[in-house]
Design goal:
Elements: H1 2-14, H2 52-60, H3 65-68, E1 82-85, E2 91-101, E3 104-115, E4 118-126, E5 129-135, H4 137-151, H5 157-164, H6 183-194, H7 198-204, H8 209-224, H9 231-243, E6 246-251, E7 254-259, H10 265-271, E8 275-278, E9 281-284
Antiparallel strand pairs: 1-2, 2-3, 3-4, 4-5, 6-7, 8-9
Helix pairs in contact: 6-8, 7-8, 8-9, 8-10
Length: 287
């Protein structure tokens, strides 16, 4: 019965707004995540082609997201595009289009980055195969160099392309029974248990917002356990909380997109529950 009550409480907590665990100025406000659907302009979707190559060529001709949305099915009635703010005034979008071949429809995932309303980088995915329809090298260099300066990292062109194909999400106690933990979740929980900040420092400096979220959760859980954060750790965590980027996360057995601060309920769960961290998972504390 206690186990059931725990997950009911967890479901309630995950719907609550994230709590700022730093002592920010009371007048300082956080921007809400801008994960939102794009505004529709018409109702009829268009096929991006009859094969993968045609789809790439079609999308390569789309200079803006507005032009690309002409090929998103149901854009007038469904929220089928996800847009989020990243660092350096760059936005990332994820949506999908259709390849129609011999009256059969095949869904392709479309992922891209926008700066100054122009698509600077984009790729399409079909059955775990990727092709790029935009690959602005100067933009990639700009993004990587600025990330390295901000987070004191040493990422390169290849790291950026790995980020662009990222399918990570925040998965802690997922599934109907709450028993699935992503590898990063296990590392984060073990790091908190051992008071080892090194893995979490790597996480908060990642190019991937979902990985950064694991680092923020873990470091704030340590802070609540009276383990002091360094000046640099505090700087990065505060920046990520203020940015409040939308991240993909599980809500029991459903995947959703929520602002980073919505994931901070895990800090309380880690430090205040009837469960303990054992081998990167929660186990009931026996009285």
């Amino acid at each position: 019965m206690k186990f059931v009550i725990y997950f009911i409480l967890l479901g309630f907590l995950i719907t609550q707004p994230g709590k700022d665990l730093f002592d920010f100025n009371a007048d300082e406000t956080f921007e809400k995540s801008n994960a939102k659907p794009a505004e529709p302009t018409h109702w009829e979707p268009r096929s991006v082609g009859s094969n993968f190559a045609e789809a790439v060529q079609t999308l390569a001709n789309c200079k803006t997201l507005e032009a690309l949305l002409d090929y998103v099915p149901g854009r007038g009635t469904h929220n089928l595009i996800w847009i989020r703010d990243l660092d350096f005034r760059v936005k990332q979008f994820k949506t999908y289009g259709l390849i129609v071949r011999k009256e059969e429809r095949h869904r392709i995932n479309i992922i891209g980055l926008i700066q100054n309303d122009s698509i600077q980088f984009g790729l399409v995915e079909l059955e775990n195969k990727f092709l790029y329809f935009k690959n602005n090298i100067s933009f990639i260099q700009y993004y990587v160099e600025n990330h390295n300066n901000l987070y004191k990292t040493n990422f390169n062109y290849n790291d950026f392309h790995s980020f662009s194909k990222n399918k990570k999400s925040v998965q802690i106690a997922c599934g109907y029974a709450g028993t699935y933990y992503a590898p990063e979740a296990k590392i984060m929980l073990q790091s908190v248990q051992k008071a080892d900040k090194k893995p979490l420092n790597l996480f908060i400096r990642s190019i991937v917002p979902e990985i950064q979220a694991y680092g923020v959760i873990g470091l704030l859980a340590m802070k609540e356990r009276c383990i002091a954060l360094s000046k640099e750790e505090s700087r990065i965590v505060k920046h990520l909380l203020k940015q409040n980027a939308a991240v993909e996360m599980c809500v029991t057995c459903v995947s959703d997109k929520r602002p980073l601060q919505a994931a901070l309920h895990w800090v309380k769960v880690i430090n205040d529950s009837d469960f303990d961290i054992v081998n990167g998972k929660f186990e009931r504390i026996e009285n």
